[in-house]
Amino acid sequence: MKKSWISGTLLACSLSLSAAHAEDTRSAWQQTLENAQGTTVYLNTVAGNAQLSNYLDWAKDEVKKRYNITLVHTETPNNTEIISRIMADKIAGKKQPGSSDIIWLHGKYFSSLRAADLLSGPFVDQLPNWPVVDQSLPVKIDATLPTDGYEAPWGLNQLTFIYDTARTATPPKSVKEMLTYAMQHPGKITYPLPSDIYGRNFLKAALLQLAPTPDVLYRDVKESDFKLQTAPLWQFLDNLHQYAWKNGKAFPANQAEMLALLKSGEIDMAISLNPNSVQYAINKGLIAPTSKAYALDQGAITRAHFLAIPFNAPSPDAAKVVINFLMSPEAQARKEDPALWGDPTILNISALGMEKARFSEHKPLFKILPEPHPSWEDALEAEWQRRYGAQGATVSP
């Protein structure tokens, strides 16, 4: 009887504390909404993504109507520029607010900002839409690094390949098959320069298949590990370049050029970081209607891309409100629509109740392959440049 009474008392206390916590959370978010009223939020992204820009044009109208927040989309050529700006403000000890409220980032850029204590947070568990995020996805890990609530997942990248089914019946499903295919179809295989994000991801995917001990790739790179693990990669590329487009002496500058080469029939495969991008490219006439996306048999390198708040954001509360809206079922469903952007959702669709209907055309992801530690990315790019850049490899004309 005594044990039963104690158990009942503990349960009642637990329920009471949970209810009190929930009420505190609601009250805190209501205060955040009130603080956000009438403010301006500057969201910075890397330039060059038309689908993202068009999507944010829609979001601007929505957050203005719902929260009286003016959302301004700003762009920089790369993440390095915005990180340098934030770091310079920190070093100079500036007291006035910075120029960005939200920055779009991932991987090594997040690592740099966290290491220098340049991000506001943790804040993610304050967002009402966080509980419906699919926790089985890499939403708490950014290139092997714990996010610790300092960046909120916005969408997903998966390294996929695009081919034209009218010309290619069976595309290569591994990097070894890719070499065989290139030997059988000279000039039809290529990849972007590693200075481009698509080129760097191709190198990482190849390395994950060829490295003697792939587990090593998920920790900070060491010189001894690098030489041993990458030796098969350079041998593969030495062989591939002999049969590649332009004999490995020139490479596409970016994905747009790869798609143009695929459409013209100059090459047989293009690279994408969005498994749903094929339909968008078809709709825009960028590739043939018979094009299809696929992943290598080992899986697709998969990572979330994130939104973070700099330490000196002018309107941090309004930034949280905008980020929470961009994580909402309505905003995520619109983002996933291939006709608009096609960027995969980070939400657990099965947990959405009636909102689930917004995702009626949702396509499952390819097999997830975790992304290596970000330190390998710079090391791979530098070594590629040393080996092949010096041999005259240039951007294609």
Automatic annotation (TrEMBL):
Residues 1-22 form the signal peptide. Keywords: Signal. Gene3D superfamilies: Periplasmic binding protein-like II. Pfam families: SBP_bac_8. It comes from Plesiomonas shigelloides 302-73. SUPFAM superfamilies: Periplasmic binding protein-like II. GO terms for cellular component: outer membrane-bounded periplasmic space. It comes from the Bacteria. This is ABC transporter, periplasmic substrate-binding protein YnjB.
